[in-house]
Write the structure tokens for this entry.
Amino acid sequence: MKKKIFALSLALVLALSLAACGGKKTTTLKVAASPTPHAEILNQCVDILKEQGIELVVNEYSDYVVPNTAVEDGDEDANYFQHVPYLDDFNAERGTHLVSVAGVHIEPMGLYAGKSASLDAIPDGGKVAVPNDATNEGRALLLLEAQGLIKLKDSSNLAATPNDIAENPKNLEFVELEAANVPANLDEVDVAAINSNYALGAGLNPVEDALVIEAADSPYVNVLVVKEGSENSEAVQALVKALQSDAVKDYINSTYNGAVVPAF
């Protein structure tokens, strides 16, 4: 009897050991993201990655600085909120070592009516709100130039500022604000250049509400970013595949109706 009990106990111990050895270890992947649409898009990948033993944790940030420093410092594994011109500028200014691993979508920037109902209605000396970070400000000025409101000294300069304006026939006054704060100040200016993610967050529909919007061939593709050296991580590559899947493409197209455009 004792031998039988011992044999059963030994068999149970071996079975549990084999189960433990054969069990799939869960990997946690922490990604910093802007709430809309980045976090929403990432959340479509949670179940896809879960099936592969990867727990995707999406942490939302409302600014454009901390998500990068958090990845640089190792507090986050990746981020998803920015385009390459902004990333390149950030690395150059801050000495960070961040790299793009995949392009996901484009958020066309738009010009929105504030006190003036149309671009033609902007008065002499009218106020225009623009993002104050280097690349998005240049992007806004290029959009204004495309509408004939200003002329830049160099239209290829993606980091242009109001100091780079050669012609300003309406004597526009530029109100430089953090990109996240531009929508809240719409009533204080004649028009405002707003990134689509912040427009959506403010309840604006870029396709319906913008006076004009960037063309779909905009070079400002939003990318998944990691610290240099992590590009080939199994979890990161699994996320890239999920973000560029047909399921995510269908979600973007059906959810944002042109305000966010897949770039893959």
